[in-house]
Amino acid sequence: MLRDPNDQDATSILQLVAGQEADIDISDPIYDFVRSIRVFDIKASQRTRGKDRDCIRSSKVRIGSYGTQGDYTWHKASMSDLPAAHSGTEGYGSTCPSVSNRSIFVEWKDYSGNYGHEQVNY
Predict the structure, then answer these.
(1) Could you report the per-residue pLDDT of 88-120, keeping only the tens digit for each?
(2) Is the sign of the CA dihedral 112, 121, 79, 95 positive or negative?
(3) Cβ atoms of residues 75 and 40 within 8 Å
C-alpha cells in the first residue's frame, strides 16, 4: 500500500532514511563495476560566422565518476576525453563543420567486463 507523502509517519521515515549513509565497504575489486560508471555532461557548438567565416567554438565537458567507497564527483574535461562511442560531435575542432550537441553520455563495464553505454541528447 502506498502512503500519502503528507502522512506524518511516512515523512518521519523518509527523514530518517535520508540522513543515513551506506555502511558497507565497496573497496573490494568485486565492486569495480560501480567505479567503472562514468557520466559525461557535454555542451558543444561550432560554426562559422561573419564575412571572414571565422570558426566559433564553444565546449563544456564534465565527467562524473565514483570513487573507491562510492563517493561521486564531477571533474572538468575536454572534448578529447569523450569516448569513441559518443556521437554528435564529429568534426569538432577540425575544418569547422557545424556542430551542436547537448548530451548526457553514460558508460560502464558490467561485472563480467562487458562495455555498455547510453546517450541522451537534449
Answers:
(1) 999 999 889 999 999 999 999 998 889 999 999
(2) positive
(3) no
